[in-house]
Amino acid sequence: MENRGKVRIGIPRVLNIYTYAPLFNAYFESLGVQPENIIYSDYTSSELYRAGASRGAIDPCFPAKIGISHVYNLIQEKHRKKPLNAIFFPMYDVLHSPLVKLQGSNACPTVTATPETVKAAFTKENDVFADNNLKYIDPVLNFADRKLFAFQMLQALQPILGLSDEENERAVEVGFDALKNYETSIRRRAREVMDQLEREDRIGIVMLGRPYHHDPGLNHEILDEFQKLGYPIFSQNTLPLDEDMLERLFGEEVRAGAISSPLDIGDAWKNSYSCSTNHKVWAAKFTARHPNLVALEISSFKCGHDAPIYGVIEGIIEQSGTPYFCFKDLDENKPTGSIRIRVETIDYFLRRYREEVIRKRKAAEDIEAQLAALEAQLKRERGLGSDAESEMPAFANEAQGEIQEMAAD
């Protein structure tokens, strides 16, 4: 058994690692693995993809295809520079979610099976891992059942790290705490930015996409292009969950009985088995109800889980009058010119949309100011008696109706 401080573990920078990296980092570090010895493959690029694509292909979608190239990058680039002891590429099975009343919270089956398919690509002719004195570790993991997760991690990593049950359980708790703290910090920052958008009458973009669509090599740097133009980008997985925000956006529907909780998507999507699909539906509802957010849906070519909800997502957004844009069927080909033209076109539209948002807000404020002035004048003319008080609601309701009609235009 090697000293844990010297153990070097490679992790492919793909798929749901864009959600669970904080958990795995904290888990390994709490066991004595040095931070510099947790080695991630490089970010996805056309060069990285082409370098490893010759070993085979996984057909369903580009996010799965690049799994082979990222493992190749770990072996040929990272391992050759300084040897690794193992490559850790978990099979994500059941994921965690803050949403309620779901049918399930499963990962995409293609995502789940990718690590095993990648292993086949490197062992079908000769065992590349054995040839390089590497262990390939790909446990099935359930993030919704912490006890099961701990057992799965122990079974997978005990041979290389020499874990006891107690050590493993403590490390699992440290990992989940790190994930919670990370998500809380991101949500806190998202709330701060949203509040700033409202104060400054600006627009933010919610990226409706799966965790791996934060990989610049998969999203073709579309999000970067919007950020360069001054639009903050929010992830569908880390929108703020503050009680006052949820009450403001979903409170009326909860009280009306349309949904049981602000985190319930049963009104919009009954087949809530896929975790990322569920999060995308909820994020679409959130975006549709927030006055300073617009939706940008991103989807990869051949995504079987996204296809059934294209109409659902677009319907949720457009029913509220919120702008909706999409980049679908993304694959390994990057049409840079076309992307820039579309981004510039969307930017032009959003600038006009912002002007309209500002106009409506100012008009509503003017009406409210006039209403307040007329109320004060009426009180002065009629006195502050009960008769004047009883006449106020009808007057207020008429003006309030005018404000609502303006907001609906």
Protein model, in words:
- The chain has 409 residues and is an alpha/beta fold.
- It folds into 3 domains: 4-181, Rossmann fold, CATH 3.40.50; 201-354, Rossmann fold (3-Layer(aba) Sandwich), CATH 3.40.50; 356-408.
- It contains 13 helices and 10 strands.
- It has helices at residues 17-30, 46-53, 62-81, 109-121, 128-131, 146-161, 165-200, 222-228, 243-256, 275-289, 310-319, 336-382, 386-408; strands spanning 9-11, 38-40, 86-88, 91-94, 135-137, 140-142, 204-208, 233-235, 293-300, 324-330.
- It has a 4-stranded parallel β-sheet, with helices on both faces. It has a 4-stranded parallel β-sheet with strand order 8-7-9-10. Strands 4-6 form a two-stranded parallel ribbon.
- The longest helix is centred in the C-terminal third of the chain and has 47 residues, at 336-382.
- It is elongated.
- It starts with 8 loop residues before the first strand and ends with a helix.
